[in-house]
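ok new one. same drill as before - structure tokens go in, u give me an amino acid for every spot. 67 of them this time. try not to just spam alanines like last time pls lmao
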């Protein structure tokens, strides 16, 4: 389930990955750069950033069921 109002962008290259999430209506955003490795878990990172932006925007984080 997507968090309402959050704009997201992924990227990376050269051994790193990036993720940006922002809520322009709340003037809140986060940008993360991490080293790419076999242990990198992109969905864990992006879900955590989305939850953070949602909470800082005054909303509730989305519940992500364990798989």
């Amino acid at each position: 389930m997507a968090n309402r109002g959050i704009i997201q962008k992924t990227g990376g290259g050269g051994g790193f990955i990036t993720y940006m999430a922002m809520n322009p209506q709340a003037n809140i955003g986060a940008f993360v750069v991490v080293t790419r490795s076999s242990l990198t878990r992109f969905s864990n990172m992006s879900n955590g950033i989305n939850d953070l932006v949602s909470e800082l925007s005054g909303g509730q984080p989305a519940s992500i069921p364990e798989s």
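The two ends are 15 Å apart (CA to CA). and btw The first helix runs from residue 42 to 56.
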